[in-house]
Design brief:
Blueprint: H1 4-14, H2 53-65, E1 69-73, H3 76-94, E2 100-104, H4 109-118, E3 121-125, H5 140-149, E4 156-160, H6 171-180, E5 184-188, H7 204-207, E6 211-214, H8 216-219, E7 227-231, H9 237-250, H10 257-294, E8 298-300, E9 306-310, H11 318-326, E10 334-335, E11 339-343, H12 352-360, H13 384-388, E12 392-396, E13 405-407, H14 427-435, E14 440-444
Parallel strand pairs: 2-3, 2-4, 4-5, 5-6
Antiparallel strand pairs: 1-7, 6-7, 8-9, 9-11, 10-11, 12-14, 13-14
Helix pairs in contact: 1-10, 2-10, 3-4, 3-9, 10-12
Length: 446
């Protein structure tokens, strides 16, 4: 497959042009990549109004993923999430409905910023069975029941799949429920770009989602910040027509051409052997998981390339296991009191043995019986927009009982809020904040 963006940049570099344009490094610097870091010069195309090399490269990606349209993001899936919400709002106007979204409670904070900026009415659904703040599994029957009880039908349902623990939703059945009611299904697939290339695709676009985002950089060999917005061939036509404008509404006007080259080169990588490389790697991952279970580790999730250990049944907190692995030169994706999350790819095929030896060297201890607190179902006092744009101040979580949350003070990973901005902080919420090590919150100043 051709790589038009990479080819253009290489030719530009080879000409040894005097760069009187941005960036200020002028193609020179200590990192060594500055010569490939250009801006939107003549011929380099414009990311959200493409008619040249970027358009060609995105068409290649769309062909690979089987979408009606695939648009690049150099600002991660966060940008794509905001664009999906904007597109859902435009679709609502197109069909004469009020923009309202039903969303899983484990939504990334990028979703919160989107509904606040766009002032979108959102109702939340909670998991059928609570496992962790990062999960929100919901069955098709439960979704159908929730929809039947709503006084006003939403224009879209928004889910996160895979979630941070590696749980994958029944996207196909959820899409069928949504489409029965004329509702869009939007999927945050940030952790699942590789699902397209499994022996049987589990990618949301192939399973009936109308739109989804993929963080290419999370599971594919792409530079940090590289992501895709995909629109299904079965989605309403107006979504494709408005997608680039929706992306540009939130995006920088100075996209990284290093990231664009990375996305461009990934097309070739995905076409030329990645599927075989992935399928060769999967048996070793499955064997690793089986051997860990044999010695007493409890695993979570059904995602192939995510290794999530429930640490307490093995006698440790997630922090403790993560620290022991760190001492052996192994850095995990995420650790909290209950889990350790590790993300695997075919690029580390030779290192799985090292990981296995490190985990098997940790002796099993007596089970820790404590569990994570339930997600609080708090009362909403204000909309997220009203709360985020209010005067606010920071206070200790312990002193926040009865206050209204103004800003979700959460880090990434996992960037999943305990409460939504505008909700009232109660004792259950305080317990949850403290459990996850959140000491301060921003509250609405009265």
């Amino acid at each position: 497959m051709d790589t038009p963006i990479c080819d253009f940049v290489k030719k530009y570099v080879d000409k040894e042009i005097l760069r009187l344009h941005m960036p200020g490094h002028k193609g020179k610097g200590a990192l060594g990549v500055e010569r490939l870091d250009i801006t939107e010069v003549e011929g380099s195309d414009v990311l959200y109004n493409p008619h040249g090399i970027i358009e060609q490269s995105q068409r290649n990606a769309s062909e690979i993923f089987g979408s009606a349209e695939t648009i690049y993001s150099t600002e991660g899936s966060s940008l794509c999430i905001r664009a999906m919400i904007q597109l859902a709002c435009l679709y609502a106007k197109d069909v004469g409905r009020r923009p309202k979204i039903l969303a899983g409670r484990n939504a990334h904070k990028a979703f919160l910023s989107a509904i606040a900026l766009l002032d979108v009415d959102t109702e939340w659904f909670y998991p059928d069975i609570f496992e962790d703040i990062m999960s929100c599994e919901i069955s098709p029957d439960t979704l159908r029941k929730v929809l039947s009880q709503m006084s006003e039908m939403p224009v879209a349902v928004y889910i996160t799949s895979p979630d941070y623990l590696g749980n994958i939703a029944d996207v196909k059945s959820l899409a069928e429920v949504c489409h029965e009611q004329g509702i869009l299904l939007l999927v945050d697939n940030a952790h699942g770009a590789y699902l397209k290339f499994l022996p049987e695709s589990c990618h949301p676009i192939d399973l009936g989602a109308d739109m989804c985002c993929d963080s290419a950089h999370k599971t594919l060999p792409v530079l940090t910040g590289g992501a895709y917005l995909h629109i299904s061939r079965h989605a309403p036509n107006m979504l494709c027509g408005a997608a680039k404008q929706a992306m540009s509404l939130f995006a920088s006007t100075s996209p990284s051409y290093l990231i664009l080259q990375s996305l461009d080169m990934a097309n070739r990588y995905l076409c030329e052997g990645y599927r075989d490389k992935l399928q060769s790697f999967l048996p070793s991952v499955r064997a690793l998981k089986q051997r860990l279970e044999c010695v007493g580790y409890v695993l979570s999730g059904d995602e192939e390339l995510k290794l999530t250990l429930k640490s307490k049944p093995y006698g440790y907190t997630g922090f403790e296991i993560s620290e022991m692995l760190s001492e052996k030169g192994i850095v995990c994706e995420l650790a909290d009191p209950d889990v350790v999350v590790m993300m695997l790819t075919p690029e580390m095929a030779k290192e799985t043995g090292e990981l296995e030896r490190a985990l098997l060297s940790i002796p099993k201890r007596q089970t820790i019986c404590s569990s994570a607190p339930q997600i609080p179902r708090a009362r909403r006092e204000m909309t997220p927009r009203e709360a985020m744009l209010s005067r606010q101040r920071s206070i200790r979580v312990a002193d926040a009982d009865g206050e209204v949350l103004a800003h979700a003070c959460i880090s990434c990973p996992p960037a999943i809020p305990v409460l939504v901005c505008g909700e009232v902080i109660d004792r259950d919420a305080i317990k949850c904040f403290e459990y996850y090590g959140i000491d301060t919150v921003n509250i609405v100043e009265k």
